[in-house]
Write a structure and sequence with these properties.
Blueprint (H helix, E strand, L loop, with lengths): L2 H14 L6 E6 L3 H10 L4 E2 L2 E8 L2 H8 L5 E7 L7 H12 L6 E6 L7 H7 L4 E4 L5 H35 L8 H15 L2 E10 L11 E7 L10 H4 L2 H11 L10 E7 L5 E8 L5 H42 L4 H4 L1 H15 L4 H10 L12 H4 L7 H7 L2 H9 L5 H12 L20 H15 L11 H10 L7 H9 L1 H10 L11
Parallel strand pairs: 1-3, 1-4, 4-5, 5-6
Antiparallel strand pairs: 2-3, 7-8, 7-10, 9-10
Helix pairs in contact: 3-4, 6-7, 7-10, 12-13, 12-18, 12-21, 13-17, 16-17, 17-18
């Protein structure tokens, strides 16, 4: 190989290691001279601030190996006649139909146009241009490559925009659920980088709850693209290099202009008082319209974030009120007060094991603590009696499921309606011997069947004024014995299959067996 060729290959390698990833162009031709001439013609090529990185294949077979690997090849210059007369055409079909690559731009080159007539090739093959080698001067080759790369860039942007829009649409319906903000923000961020033809590296971060947001350690990454995609949830200080951290730090200090026009960095304060910051790296300098679009993204995501925090606070307040009310019902003791929290976790675990929809599992989880609300109507003398209840007293005690149902059924809210069902049926038994209505088998709602086992398991292991707590082995044996009698067999099987998880929940709260005055 000549000294010139050595120089060209060295220059090509140097360009490929530049800060911005070069365009990848594949040359497929069995004539080495064509490769050399193409390298010479394009050795100083630049488009959109990016240079070229040339890949070489001397047969259709070699090209298939290259193209079937993960790649970012933007353009392929393919000879028609190589191993055989239609090798190039078969390669085109492989790219489009086997590999299903619709983005790569393809220019066919031929030195024997009679063997592959232009009209036939253009009509029957998904290519972007068809040239005779003799007509491809340096200027025409340069023009073809520019036009093809522009087309490829636009198609990639549209593809990214489509995927980003799909993600936005998908997460918009779930944006107020816990953990959904990141997916929503990532979708919008991907749209922004695609629409503005920006580089793939971008970050959206906001201040961690309780922190000022004045330092990088106070900022958590909510959405990210490119090299930062795996850094979501981390602090900015731990996730980005010092150079990027320096730019974001300046933005937090009130400076929105970066030192490098290829980057845009900005920060602002949300309505809830949190600090938010965005960093994007771009191929071209951003104009005012670009900056306004990025700022609009930040504002919209920050609004969604504020609404999510408000929803989380409302949900947490609602659940805390349910727990407080339920614990007030439960013997007014901190020890047994944890009963309502444990049974909620047991019920959720059983519901998931049964394969119920996640929405139903969550509703059961929230409603279960209210299962004994009817005990508000039971006199303390009966509720806390140490001796066995008399017949009349027992009749009063057995009224608490109906009392709870009467209170809760007045609401149209899904959680309270579910709580009404559980309150009414958690003392019904699979064999029909339960109370208050003697329901049998599947006459008992699945919520009631789940609630019954969760409640009994925890009650047996807890101290009560009328009994000592049972050992775990005795409780499990009792549950096994009551399969198909007191408890639904399917619910029992799921409970026993997850007994380690159930016990872990049980042990995760305060001790069950502590009574006043005992050790």
């Amino acid at each position: 190989m000549s000294t010139d060729d050595d120089f060209l290959f060295a220059d090509e390698q140097a360009e490929s290691t530049s800060f911005i990833e070069p365009w990848q162009l594949l040359i497929v031709d069995d004539d080495e001279a064509v490769h050399q001439v193409t390298r010479l013609a394009l050795h100083d090529f630049e488009f959109g601030g990016r240079t070229l990185s040339l890949l070489h294949a001397h047969s259709a077979h070699e090209a298939k190996i290259l193209l079937d690997k993960p790649n970012n090849i933007a353009l392929a210059l393919i000879d028609v006649v190589m191993e055989h007369e239609s090798a190039g055409l078969e390669l085109v079909r492989h790219i489009r139909e086997v590999s299903c690559n619709r983005l790569i731009r393809i220019i066919l080159r031929t030195g024997q146009p009679g063997q592959a007539p232009e009209r036939m090739v253009i009509r029957d093959y998904d290519i972007n241009d068809y040239k005779e080698k003799t007509e491809l001067t340096i200027d025409k080759l340069y023009s073809c490559v520019c036009a093809s790369l522009r087309s490829y860039r636009d198609l990639v942007a549209l593809d990214h925009n489509r995927r980003g829009l799909e993600q936005v649409i998908s997460y918009s319906a779930k944006v107020f659920r816990i953990g959904a903000l990141s997916g929503f923000a990532n979708g919008v961020l991907e749209q922004i980088t695609a629409l503005l033809f920006l580089d793939k590296d971008a970050i959206y971060a906001n201040s961690i709850a309780g922190e000022t947001g004045e330092s990088l350690g106070d900022m958590r990454i909510v959405a990210a693209a490119g090299v930062y995609s795996d850094e979501i949830g981390k602090s900015v200080r731990d996730a980005v290099p010092d150079s990027v951290g320096h730019l974001i730090g300046k933005a937090l200090a009130g400076e929105t202009q970066s030192d490098d026009e290829r980057h845009y960095v900005s920060s602002f304060r949300t309505d809830s008082g949190q600090i938010a910051a965005i960093f994007v790296s771009g191929i071209n300098p951003l104009d005012d319209d670009d900056r306004r679009l990025i700022d609009l993204f930040c504002r919209n995501v920050s609004i969604a974030h504020d609404q999510l925090l408000l929803r989380e606070d409302i949900d947490a307040t609602q659940q805390e009120l349910i727990f407080l009310l339920s614990e007030a019902v439960e013997t007014r003791s901190p020890e047994t007060g944890f009963h309502v929290r444990r049974v909620a976790e047991y019920a959720y675990t059983i519901a998931r094991a049964l394969g119920l929809p996640e929405k139903d599992c969550e509703i059961i989880h929230r409603a279960m603590p209210l299962h004994d609300l009817g005990k508000l109507g039971i006199p303390d003398a009966i509720l806390h009696k140490h001796a066995k209840l008399e017949i009349g007293e027992w009749d009063i005690m057995k009224s608490h499921p109906q009392l709870g149902y009467n209170i809760l059924s007045k609401s149209e809210r899904p959680i309270l309606r579910t709580a009404a069902i559980i309150a009414a049926q958690h003392h019904e038994k699979w064999d029909g011997t339960g109370y208050p209505n003697g329901l049998k088998g599947e006459e008992i709602h699945i919520y009631g069947r789940i609630g019954a086992l969760a409640d009994v398991f925890d009650a047996l292991g807890s101290y009560r004024s009328y009994k000592e707590p049972w050992e775990i082995e005795k409780i499990i044996h009792f549950v096994e014995e009551q399969r198909g009698k007191q408890f639904d067999p399917a619910v029992t099987d799921c409970f026993l299959a997850n007994i380690d998880r159930i016990i872990a929940i049980r042990d995760g709260y305060e001790p069950l067996a502590v009574a006043e005055g005992s050790e």
